[in-house]
Amino acid sequence: MTLGRTVGSGPPALYTREILAGLVTAVADRLGDRVADAVGRCMSDTLARTITRHPDGTAFVITGDIPAMWLRDSTAQLAPFLHLAAADERLADTIAAVSRRQQSSILHDAYANAFNDGPTGAGHRDRTGQSDGWQSAWVWERKYEIDSLAYPVQLAYDLWCATGRTDHLGQFGQVARTVVELWRAEQRHHEGSPYTFERTDCPPSDTLVRAGRGPEVAFTGMTWAGFRPSDDACRYGYNVPGNALAAVALGYLGRIAAEVLHDDVLADDAATLRSDLERGIREHGVVPGPAGHPVYAYEVDGRGGVFLGDDANSPSLLSLPMLGWCAPDDPLYTATRDLILSDANPYYYSGTAASGIGSPHTPAGHVWPIALAIQGLTTTDPDECHRLLDLILATDAGTGAVHESFHVDDPATYTREWFSWANAMFCELALQAAGLRTYHRPVSAPTAERAAR
């Protein structure tokens, strides 16, 4: 089977500079120089400082001030560039190189969330459920999160849809089977999953209870996760937005399997698992809210445990329309949105400088610009989108960078000087406000039918 163009060796340029300059000019024309300067600075920084191309046709992407590649973050960091990929072959080559690296990482260790650029042994050295008891020297961290597998599927699919190229899909069939088999196995984590995780001398959020197996769960049809997208341990085992993203990603996986790989068995397996996850969310992840109206829970355990709220990190309940799970005006989503953007969400903070969703991963009272950007990207009100764009610009503490979080009363108090995911989400919001998000992810049939209802 031939899968598109091959990639030559050597370190080619990451992109054509004129293409980014043209985008910045278009943003300036529509939103003014201040927004355009920030967009240009953030996107240039991602290309110049976070991505390393290798002669083997792959590319490694650091998350910013941590020299490791998170599968989730590296996908999100490239989101603004998908709008330019069809017009810039060099940029498309770079995205393809990142996708190849993500896929090879999954084949190396499908339970890991972050990797080193080689077998350096850097990062956290934790006890795991592997045969030798210790994680690979290639792995920075082995916290199992559903989105660590879903986001690379999304990136591979997005590049195919945006450009029509398939040269990054050479290993995709093997990767896809690995993902489907792992998610299927973790539907019954409590019955014998091989995954455990234990870290000593750390906060409770950095390890799993019960000898690394996590809190008790019962079967729901959803797939289990040890950790949230924040890298904090799940309170309950079934993270609902993570399962929603997995269901959507299985739709993408199935399309590639059927239309590119011509593997109907894989496509059918993906469709069956997707149906399981959607039914699990419908039957266990939708619960009565404080006002009695149905809402999505953030986490459940199938045993009666329910957490109502949301975390700033995506996949989140706030991000469900952005993920392709539902329409932004879906009644169940809007009821959930009202809850999580209020004091009913324990991670929602209000202050004199800002109000928004934070995370237990950062100090109390800190709002995440990522969540503010997602709020703007999922609103049906253009004024809210522009207001949130201005708010992120106004709370950078004069640094010209978008931080991980900042205090709602004092934006000069912030976490992480350099966080490329936050920069990327600001750019996505700016492009949305300017009407320049030209690539819009297709919604596959089951999700579209649900949204219509």
Automatic annotation (TrEMBL):
* Superkingdom classification of source: Bacteria
Protein keywords: Hydrolase
Extent of the signal sequence: none
Gene3D superfamilies of this UniProt entry? 1.50.10.10
A Pfam family this chain is assigned to: Glyco_hydro_125
MF terms (GO), sorted A to Z: hydrolase activity
Q: Any idea what this protein is called? A: Glycoside hydrolase family 125 protein
State the organism named in the record: Promicromonospora vindobonensis
